[in-house]
Amino acid sequence: MLLHEGLGSVARWADFPHQLASRCGLEVIAYSRAGYGRSDPKPRPWADDFMHREATEALPELLRRLQLDRPPVLVGHSDGGSIALIAAGDADLDLEGVVALAPHLFVEPITLEGIRRVSARWRRDDGFRRAFSFHHRAGSELFEAWSDAWLRPSFKAWDISEAVRRITVPILAVQGYDDAFGTLDQLHTLTELAPQTRRVELPDCGHAPHLERPDAVLDAIAAFLGRISSEQTPRAAAP
User: Fold this and answer.
1) Fewest Cβ atoms nearer than 10 Å: which of 51, 59, 110, 206?
2) What string of DSSP letters covers 83-98?
3) CA distances from 174 to 88, 122, 212 (A)
4) pLDDT band at 235 (very low <50, low <70, confident <90, very high)
5) CA distances from 129 to 4, 121, 141, 171 (A)
6) C-alpha to C-alpha distance for 27 and 211, rounded to whole angstroms
7) Around Cβ 209, how many Cβ atoms within 10 Å?
8) Tell me: the pLDDT tens digits for 41-76?
9) Is 214 exposed, middle or buried (0-12, 13-18, 19+ CB in 10 A)?
10) ∠ at Cα 49 (48, 54), nearest 5°?
């Protein structure tokens, strides 16, 4: 189950879902959250706990309706990675594992600086606004709701550490050395809070590892899923 980034959608995954399905031999499901892509608009303003609500209300309801025949692995990018981690810790879900690509566990200055740069470009660049709105039914409303939430002074206290501490399923965390929206402290903190985490740090990679270093990410996910599968396979009894 793919959970897109803060300004993403089904379309923004590009060819990654097909690559993932081919590489791992599993069904891959992607969806656009409310307010994103061609989904119905989401009322504004977004509260500081908008990712928690997505993780503990909207995602469980979606999974209930899908009636999957096996527990899913959540694969989330950026905000989607955060939502996946919150869901694994705080939602009453049966999961096989979590793959978090450049997730946010807490708010860093570099994250806010990056969002401010994107917001400044949004205000001055008509081409950027048109390109963004091509992927979203209500692009302006989405961008302003998301950026307003992240840049709200009260959001600086946002932190998902307590949810992460409660995660019991395996975790794969991937981040690029050159991520302009978060430091490797995010992954290091994740590993401290959830020691079952396998951490992959990629050189020559920014905030979208699955698009910038797809082969490395696909290899890491395939190996991760292989370990999960082998750990779930009952061992034969000793003679």
Assistant:
1) 110
2) HHHHHHHHS----SEE
3) 17, 28, 12
4) very low
5) 19, 9, 11, 35
6) 19
7) 22
8) 899 999 999 999 999 999 999 999 999 999 999 999
9) middle
10) 135
